[in-house]
Amino acid sequence: MQTMTKTLFKKATFALSVFALLFSAPLQARPNTDAVAQLKSLQSQLIQLKERNKNRPPLAYQVFCRKHARECRGGGSSSVRYNKKLIATLYETNRAVNRKIRYRNDRGETWSINTPFGDCEDYALTKRSELIRKGVPASSLRMAVVKTRSGIGHAVLVVRTNRGDLVLDNRRSSIRTRSKTGYKYLKMATANPKKWVSLLLK
């Protein structure tokens, strides 16, 4: 099913590119009515595909947001400008929180913030809160659920910049681009932290 969905997504995206190209041509070179109808059908399928890409946030995250509504608000730009000041702030925050929280596996799946003991999602939520306090736009800071190369569920904080996504991770002190983490990204918050999307198509 996933393979079929990816194929449909690629076909629809390609068709829309062709559609735009055709309609940029002179009037005498415009496509016939049947071709337009087919392309519009593919456009509709692509829109539906994007709608199906919506995903519910993890249940534990929903509970967290009910308890800590201020920590689950967006605001500001949906991406932040990549520069030396931002990178320094990300490194400092990542290292500080990784040192402050002592790792403890949370079998009860309770997501917390600013806790002395916790696991991956607690690190990520605390980093998000700290970065907002330091002036990074809330809407550019996205919680994400991933799988490691060994198939273990994990959570990280993704920072969306104008040069691509950067990842803060309790497993390492370095900051990596999303494509260099080696993780399989399952779903991630949008600019609105209460709305998540599936990343299986990306």
UniProtKB/TrEMBL annotation:
**UniProt keyword Signal present:** yes
* InterPro entries recorded: Transglutaminase-like_Cys_pept
Q: Which domain of life is it from?
A: Bacteria
Q: Which keywords fit this entry according to its UniProt record?
A: Signal
Q: What range does the record give for the signal peptide? A: 1-29
Q: Matching PANTHER family, A to Z?
A: BLR5470 PROTEIN, PTHR39327
- Report the protein name in the record: Transglutaminase
